[in-house]
TrEMBL record, chain A:
Transmembrane segments: 45-67, 100-122, 134-154, 174-199, 234-266, 286-303, 333-353, 389-414, 426-449, 455-476, 516-541, 561-584
One Pfam family of this chain: BPD_transp_1
Major subcellular location class: membrane
Presence of keyword Transmembrane: yes
Keyword hit for Plastid: no
GO biological process, one term: transmembrane transport
Compartmental location: Cell inner membrane; Cell membrane
Ranges where the ABC transmembrane type-1 domain occurs: 96-304, 390-580
Name recorded for this polypeptide: ABC transporter substrate-binding protein
Origin species: Aliidongia dinghuensis
TrEMBL record, chain B:
Keywords annotated in UniProt: Signal
Pfam family, one: SBP_bac_6
The UniProt record lists the keyword Signal: yes
UniProt xrefs under SUPFAM superfamilies: Periplasmic binding protein-like II (SSF53850)
Signal peptide, first to last residue: 1-26
Protein name: ABC transporter substrate-binding protein
Organism listed in the record: Aliidongia dinghuensis
InterPro entries, per database record: Ferric-bd
Keyword check for rRNA processing: no
Amino acid sequence: MTRRSLAPDLTGGDLAPVAKPAVATPAESAARPARRFVTLDPSTVIWVGATLLLVFMIVAPMARLLFSSFQSTETGQLTLENYVTAYGNLRRLVGLGNSLLYGAAVVLVATGFAVPLAWAVARTDMPAKGLVRATVLGAFITPSYLGAIGWILLAGPNAGWLNRLWMALTGAHAGIVNVYSFAGLVLVTALYAFPYIFVFTADALDRVSSEMEEAAHILGLSPFRTILRVTLPLVLPAILGGAIIVFLDTVALFGTPAVIALPARVNIMTLQLWQFFEFPVRAEAAAAYAVPLVLITIAMLALQRTILGRKGYVSLTGKGGGRSLMRLGRLRWAVLGFCFTVCALAVFLPYLALAQAAFSRAWGQGFSFANLTLGNFAYLFGEASSRQVILNTFIFSAATACLAVVLALIVAYVVGRRLVIGGGVLAGLCMAPLVVPGIVLAIGLYAVYSAPPLMLYGTAAILVLGFTTRFLPIAFANCTASLRSLNPEMEEAVRILGGSRFVAVRRVVVPLLKKSLIGTWLLVFIPASRELSTAIFLVAAKTRVISVMILDLSENGSFETLAALGFFLLGVTILIVLAGYRLVGRDFLLRKS
Amino acid sequence: MNGARWASSLLAAIGLAGLALSTASAETTQEKALYDAAKKEGAVSWYSGILDQPICDQVGKAFQAKYPGIQVSAIKTTSQVAFQRLLQDLKAGQVQSDVFTTTDIGHMMFLKSKDQLVKYVPENEAGMVDAVKNVDPDGYFHTSWVGISAIVYNTAKVKPADAPKDWPDLTDPRWKGQITFGSPNYSGMVGVWTVAMENRYGWDYFTKLNALDPQIGRSIDDAVTVLNSGERIVGMGNAASALRSAAKGNPLAVVYPSSGTLIVISPSAIIKGTPHPNAAKLFMEFLTGPDYSKILAANFEQPLRGDVAPAAGGKSLADMKPFAPTADQIEKQLPPNKAKWRDTFGM
């Protein structure tokens, strides 16, 4: 009875009735504790199970990684020689240093793009919000290789469109922008990484009620200072969570650096790491080179904990705060201008350049009507094998996203509500797979999953498990940030009234964080759909995915088909996102939705 | 153009099917015996570090058409990944691949030294061009693909008469800021190129190239993308990718250097302990036979046999003065060359 009355009220859009279950029948609340002594609480089973699964999924390949870093390539004996190979060279140390600098610079630029955009979309009356959201996710789904090529076409020093335009306009003999530079590398990486921070921050802003902002306003704070002193601090955990993901993702990135940093002769770690896989292969040295990254991850998490400290970030309480959008007046056009500039840099301009290839028979000929064709798209759908590849990608990524969200929510809850000892270790474990370079993780995954007793090689399951391990950190970081904004009192109310943890999560946490969980789902779905390094190790003939197909196409010079595939991905993402937001409806804190 | 290509590949496919029917009766007794034994195994799996997945699938289909009853599962990844997977399989005692093909002959030397390969000399190897025959004197591995490293240029920006004719022409100062190639640290084919050029012209060749401020990509195939974009106008690249792109109408052409074209041999071998040893042998026969070379030519790759004509714009192996450093030279010189490369080019 009680539980049934609770659910519709919460999902129905009003928070006030959280207090309603107080009308539970005395008989029921009396019976509950007695029963819990007898039977095991189902929620305990669930999180113990999830934790064990997690330990297996992450600890098994990671332990193998750590162990192999101390193993001799030749004899398998314990040794430190891999660390000497990995670090006994100035160039490698410089590479590591450059990578850290690169990661930090990308975080700064990406935050500069993402936070204003997220604020504009979530808290203001700016027009064209749906389009901005969809375009940001379009940038997100763009494979880094393709985005980088788009930018080479735009900002190549000799033939880049922007440079040619500049030369034509001013009569200058040289262009003004050069993508082949450290700055170019940082900008291009940030353009395709900022959506992480955007999604985290926008979700958090969606949950902040206006009460505190109104209070600040009444106390005489200007709107601008209110944003700085009240709104942004409340979503700091989300911004930091996103920033950490961007940092770790950047440090472990290979695609963009391969296309931009290598010709720019900027030496970074992943480029060094790749060389360990040229013959003679030294996978063990690669593992040794990767181990400090895991330490860096743990350091980042500790830093995050210090920054956030014991301050309160609860923005979602049972008291039913309303939320109003900030009226920007004329300023809204300036804000929209900023959003469109970012969207143009990330999506419109590079795709315009790529369009020339996607709709050409031969892209090197340049634009002409005779050269136009839809044949590259026809090829994508005409071939049974490429249709299969596209279908595989969406199915595997969706399955990965579902599995990761469920696991991450459980673990984030267990850690966040301190239900187990050693939660911090569990959190560190959850974040580790992201930073381990994909190819190194992939070897561990392949070794664990394809050998007996699992023998999953050749199945879709091995890809889904591999992707889930790889992207669990993202889901975990987002769930953790969301849970911080949720006042535990609401769950405690359920517990006091005799509901189990399971009920509290299912009937309170999940409905309240619905939108955030959908955001998390997308945050996993999108990178999973473009993941290459693990995929290439785990695919079999029938389980190929788009990223592997892209590599094939780039290797045989079929750039026209490659660009067409990029367009297709962009189109599908924008449709999914627009449909998704329509289905979910607007945020439930906006009462009039 | 595009329609014509579709039609021609369709015709090629029909031709292949017809050929499969006609050769089915012309089997040698050894081939027949192999086929009978292979049929009982019913399947063969191929880890391929060469070609791309669609072409590997074509190869599998053609094999199945010629030898009904034997399923081919072809998995294309990069050679490094295929090799890593193979090593993991061997470690776990679960051989998943019957036939392994790699662009890196070093992989084969390693497997051979560890006694992981099956010795088998396909009968069909006799019909291959001399330059690619008997890569392993002991008969453990055999050529399945040849990478052609040649000079490539953008025909919209360089007239054929002005294009470089031979390797030393690439170091001409007029290509300053205009030249591109890959890196030996990421591409085996580029690595072999450094060995070959060093042996012919000394390391000074690369010092001169560095003075031209080259754009250094990763793979040997990057040159095609860079040249098409117009960012650079001449380069050292893979002839097959350039021909494929040129056939679509892109402004690219290949120059086979007058003093000789560099070839990089990618071998295949049968892995010891495979569950399908006879099907693997039959597959090796197929990879050395004419049907496979026809698939290569139809996809702008280099046919391995004199009896199969190359793709339009290409040359036959016999006509391009092919040369290659020996496996020993590559094994000895490549690792120090990678270091020298980093010193010369800073990456």
